[in-house]
Each structure stands twice: as C-alpha cells, then as structure tokens.
Amino acid sequence: MTLIQPFVTEVDFLSGALSSPGYVIERKLSDMTEMYADRDEATRILTEEGDRLIYEVQGIELPAEEGQIPHCSTRILPGDIGGECHMTKGHYHARREQGEVYFGLSGRGLLLMQTEDGDTSELEMVAGSAAYVPPYWAHRTVNIGAEDFVFFSVWEARAGHDYGTIERDGFRKLIMLRDGEAVVVDNPKYG
What we know:
- The protein has helices at residues 29-32, 39-49, 164-169; strands at residues 23-28, 53-60, 71-76, 80-81, 84-85, 100-106, 108-115, 120-126, 130-133, 137-143, 149-155, 173-178, 181-186.
- The protein has a single domain (23-186), classed as Sandwich (Jelly Rolls), CATH 2.60.120.10.
- It is 11% helix and 40% strand.
- The chain is mainly beta.
C-alpha cells in the first residue's frame, strides 16, 4: 500500500470548491444528452441555447488501493431538460459490494437509487443531511431546488465506477418538475 502523508482540504459549502482539487470534471449537456428522457428537447437546447453546464465534480485523487478513501464535492446547477431536473449521470460501483456516503452542503437535492433487481429509493438531501448508499445500489443525485445543490461524497478506493450500465439502461424513475415541485415518476424508456 502506498504511504501517503496526512493532509487537509478546505471545502466551500456553497460552491463545493476544494482548496486543492486533484481533478475537476465538468459535465455539460452534450455529455448528458442520452441521459435525459426527452432527448429531442436536449438536442433543441444544445442547438438553440448552447452547451450548458449541468454539474461539476472536484475531487481528491488517491491510489485505487485497499484502505484509501477518495472523496469529492459535486455541484449540480438548477434547471431542467424537458421538465426533468438537472442530475448527475449516475452509476453502480464496479465492485457492487462497496457503499458510499453523501453529505449535503447546500441547496436541495434528491438521491435516486436502484438495485439491479428493480428496487428503488429516493432520499431528500439538504445541508447537513448524510445519506448512505448501501452496496449493490446504483445512485444518481438530482437538483430539486432553485439554487445549486452541493454535496460531498466519500467511498472506498477500490469501488470503481460503472457508468455503462446506467448509460445503457437508465434509471427506473425520473425526477420531473410539475407545478414547480419535484415529483418521482416511472421512466417510460427504462431498460
């Protein structure tokens, strides 16, 4: 195992900015078009309004070794695509038996989860809430408020990320805006 010196990272709770991120990932609509149920609306927005930022991740990079605990902050901007709230891509862990913890820093969000057997769960998150993603659950976060939703996450380094299953199958549930409120509905295109 790699011996790493102890370190501290400062986190801005409103923006999710880390004092010294090892990496920054920006996900724009062009990266997410296939994730939204209304792909025609996503394409229209890209063509007419441009490639908007959906979310940003700032993280601490550590070796993918037993005992290491990577962590990151994620900021999801408010907005929707065809009524479907801005969200992260979502993923299973490559090692399904690994869990994860999300801690809300600012704004309002929903943690959408599902198992490969079809169970689903939605947990509301606000500043100060800690949500546990158990092993074997895919997870996606969704901004359900009018301001940025920011959260901090921690996982075991060997967990890995399986985005491909979600890219192929999607999530069983969608988070839609109806009369200004976020509601959970069945995804007609699931699978």
